[in-house]
Amino acid sequence: MTGMQRFQAIMAGQLPDRVPVLCNLLDQGARELGMSIKEYYRRGENVAEGQLHMRKKYGYDSLLGLFYVAMEAEMLGCRSIIYAEDGPPNVGQLIISEPEDIRRLQIPDDMEELPRFRELSACIRILKREAAGRFPVIGVVTASFTLPAMLMGISGWLNLFLSGPTELRSLLLEKCSQFCRRQILALRQAGADLIVYTNSVGTATFVTSRQFHDLVLPSVLRDLEGIGTGDLVYFNGGGQINPQLKTLVEQTPLRAFYINPFDDIGEAAGMLNGQALLVGTINDIRLINGSKEEIDDQVKGIMEQGKRVTGFAFGTLMMPYVIPEENIRAMLESAYRYGSYKRGA
Questions:
Q1: Can you tell me where the transmembrane regions are (predicted)?
Q2: Which of 39, 293, 304, 325 could pair covalently with 35 via S-S, beta carbons 3.0-4.6 A apart?
Q3: What is the pTM of this model?
Q4: d(CA 110, CA 117)
């Protein structure tokens, strides 16, 4: 089966030959092409070539149309991106430092007007063409509740949503929601088959249950209103979401959830009760120094729980650049072996 066929099978409530595997390698594409990370991310063609090269090399089931998370801040006016030699680019300039910056923030009507989005769009179009229907192309957007952290810093955003003026908070969330919605539509137009909706600041790691219900949930519903959600996957972005999962599946139209390595798969499956797809994740920080035996045990445990669930996929978070190649291979070989649905596997 192809990667696309595996995802189509679990979305139809059927068993594929093995559990579909999502492997989120990003900056590693620069190493594959012998480029610096800064040079690599300069052009959409480079990222597409890197993604195609890595998927062929490792054999996983999707193609990732994503540069680096901070690029969304760049699209909205950030003029300074910090490039590391062995990690993702990061924001070097916060575009919101005072209340008036929120009022001045402009959300483009057409994402293709933005030079950086055009590079991303070009990347996705190449991936779509080269995939030829064999592998889903995945786009990524940041939820309106999380995007402000990139625009004004996490401490600035926490201060605003916890104790700042309600009018400013609402205005910023509304503008970020416009950006999120327009980007989802533009990613689809470029050819993305699935779109990961990332809401790290909205997870139980950062907010209380009351804050989730009062602030996060309304922002999620606004982001998704009237745009269709059949291709969206709710991604934890590194925070735990099990305490929120029952509410999300009952009160939003989302039907696919990417949980955290510290979220219990069995508990999540019980709350979803067959109403949504579930992506169980490995703690990829432990892949940096873990032995092959330790990696094998991690993957085996995830697969043993996940294969009891209808509609299950295996995934990573955003894999650090410094994970040794042999450990990436060890994880994937274990995932293919323990994820098999063949009799006796």
A1: 135-158
A2: 39
A3: 0.96
A4: 10
Amino acid sitting at position 142: T
Instruction: Point out which residues pair with 160 in neighbouring strands.
Output: none
Q: Which of 52, 80, 77 is nearest to 65 (CA)?
A: 52
Two structure tokens written together for 10:
């679990």
DSSP string, 18-52: B--EE----THHHHHHT--HHHHTT-HHHHHHHHH
- Give 61's pLDDT tier (boundaries 50, 70, 90): very high
Q: How far apart are CA 310 and CA 126, in angstroms?
A: 33
**For 3-339, which CATH class?**
alpha beta
pLDDT digits (tens, 9 = 90+) for 162-219: 999 999 999 999 999 999 999 999 999 999 999 999 999 999 999 999 999 999 999 9
Residues 201 and 154: their CA atoms lie apart, in Å, by 9
Contact 24, 15 (CB under 8 A): no
Question: Contact at 8 Å (CB) between 95 and 16?
Answer: no
Tens digit of pLDDT for each residue in 80-96? 999 999 999 999 999 99
Give SS3 for 122. Answer: helix
**Element of type H or E holding 67:** none
Our measurement of the distance from residue 20's CA atom to the centroid of its chain's CA atoms, rounded to an integer in Å, reads: 16
Q: Chain centroid to CA 92: how far?
A: 22
Instruction: Kindly give, in sequence order, each residue whose CB lies less than 8 Å from that of residue 85, ignoring residues fewer than 6 positions away.
Output: 36, 37
Q: What are phi and psi of 26, to 5 degrees?
A: -120, -80
d(CA 152, CA 33) in angstroms, rounded, equals 34
First-to-final CA distance of the chain:
17
Longest dimension (CA), the chain: 64
Which residues 6+ apart lie within 8 Å of 275 measured at CB? 249, 255
* CA–CA separation, 180 and 26 (whole Å): 21
Please state the rounded mean pLDDT for residues 38-46. 98
CB atoms within 10 A of CB 81: 18
Place of tokens 């480079």: 46
User: Cα–Cα distance between 301 and 338 in angstroms, integer?
Assistant: 9
